[in-house]
Design goal:
Elements lengths: L1 E5 L3 H15 L3 H4 L2 E6 L10 E3 L5 E3 L11 H10 L3 E5 L2 E4 L1 H4 L6 E3 L11 H16 L10 H8 L2 H16 L20 H8 L3 H5 L10 E5 L5 H10 L5 E3 L1 E7 L4 E6 L2 E6 L2 E4 L3 H8 L8 E13 L11 E3 L9 E3 L14 E11 L6 H14 L8 E9 L4 E2 L4 H8 L1
Parallel strand pairs: 1-2, 1-13, 2-9, 6-15
Antiparallel strand pairs: 3-4, 5-8, 6-7, 10-11, 11-12, 14-17, 14-18, 14-19, 15-16, 16-17
Helix pairs in contact: 3-10
Length: 417
């Protein structure tokens, strides 16, 4: 049996790791299985890769961290690939200076909806009133058709306006009303009555220093060397070399005759397969296979801006892993203090680094250069860096940033697949 996989990023590598594991155990079906992974880049990792800039700083393609949560198999695979890891405790906060009408940073604990007791008095009172109204309702009669409805159902209009709406537009580039509620799952923390009461019992100092420990990534790991991309390149190198076709672009897929056409070293070639694993954006697969009409699916693009800095690190940032920014006056929605994670600078005694993620609609005419300049200005305004300490600036635009969970996604996919 021949399996072809499009993409040698975490999903494809996970399949390769499992097949290799089964073959090593002597499984007969696995031993009779051939796997070929096509990867258009000259390295494995996809959007989880790490690149080195001209000044020797390493940059991930986003704030990637590793935690296995309910998936110990994932931890087993990544630890097999890389032996040296740093164990870190999340310490992240949310900048909500616009609520307080102040310049620079005004940080509240993460997740922001847990920080209601720290909000300005008039906003806090409205939030508490709306939350208590929801606790008192035995059963809601409100229909939930989109993410805005979901927020209104669980939190109320004030938290929607002061946090969820501005942050949603920063990350997803659309208003919450244009998003499905089905993506939420455990990704957005609800605020139970008992939790709110315990928060209101804390004094201001206790609240300001709290990380509420919500979410599966409150503790995480990061490779000591090489960035996140080191995990996937190391995994590739430990797997059979002949399984990988790097620098090879898939041109089309004939799903009826089970053949794949690809470009390798400037030559078009064809390969038969028995089973196909696709890890690329689904709209690209549809374009390659013509299996159905073009998909009406939305996504945004993300500009990564990495800033290498001369030491010492800005004292304010020494305690944090990353920060969130609903503030519309800066382009980034998240800033990661990347050099806190591992050895990602030319010399950790002389440099530190900070990485910013900026989301744009796919047709936004803003150039990468403009985003970089706005990012640098934003970091300065927030008091996170000074321009005279900049040692390196790196940027890249990821044309497929986040798939946007619009209300039509599940019905559309269910109809066609």
């Amino acid at each position: 049996m021949k399996i072809v996989c499009i993409g040698a990023a975490p999903t494809g590598l996970g399949a390769a790791f499992r097949l290799h594991e089964l073959q090593e155990s002597g499984d007969e079906k696995a031993l009779d299985t051939q796997l070929v992974l096509f990867e258009q880049e000259p390295y494995a990792g996809g959007l989880s890769c790490t690149v080195k800039d001209k000044n020797g700083f390493l940059w991930d393609m986003g704030g990637h961290i590793t935690f296995d949560h309910n998936y110990p198999y994932y931890g087993k695979a990544t630890k097999w690939a890389v032996e040296e890891w740093n164990q870190l405790t999340r310490n992240c906060m949310v900048d909500m200076n616009y609520l307080y009408k102040t310049d620079g940073l005004r940080l509240v604990p993460y997740p922001a909806q847990f920080a209601v007791p720290l909000f300005p008095a008039h906003i806090k009172e409205k939030c508490l009133m709306e939350l208590n109204e929801r606790y008192q309702q035995a059963q809601s009669t409100r229909s939930v058709h989109n993410f805005e409805d979901w927020v209104l159902e669980h939190f109320g209009p004030t938290i929607l306006d002061v946090f969820f709406r501005p942050y949603t537009k920063k990350v997803w580039t659309v208003d919450p009303v244009k998003m499905s509620p089905n993506w939420v799952g455990t990704r957005v923390a609800k605020l139970p009555k008992e939790k709110l009461e315990s928060l209101c019992a804390m004094n201001e100092k206790e609240l300001e220093t709290a990380d509420f420990g919500w979410g599966p990534n409150s503790f995480f790991t990061f490779p000591k060397y090489g960035g996140t991309g080191n995990v996937w390149e190391s995994m590739r190198k430990k797997l059979p070399t002949d399984w990988f076709k790097l620098g090879t672009k898939v041109l089309s897929v004939d799903h009826k005759n089970k053949t794949i056409r690809y470009l390798e070293e400037g030559q078009e070639k064809e390969m038969e397969y028995d089973a196909l694993i696709n890890t690329t954006p689904i709209d690209l697969l549809v374009e390659q296979t013509k299996i159905c009409p073009p998909l009406n699916l939305a996504h945004n693009k993300v500009v990564i801006v990495g800033v290498g800095m001369h030491a010492p690190m800005t004292p304010l940032l020494e305690q944090f892993t990353w920060l969130y920014f609903p503030d519309r006056n800066v382009p980034f929605f998240r800033v990661t203090i990347l050099s806190r994670y591992g050895e990602v600078t030319p010399d950790s005694s002389k440099y530190w680094s900070i990485m910013c993620e900026c989301a744009l609609q796919i047709d936004d005419p803003t150039t990468e250069e403009q985003v970089v300049e706005k990012t640098l200005n934003g970091l300065v305004v927030k008091g996170m860096i000074t321009r005279d300490k900049i040692a390196s600036v790196y940027s890249i635009t990821l044309p497929y940033g986040y798939p946007i969970p619009t209300p039509n996604v599940i019905p559309f996919m269910s109809h066609h697949f």
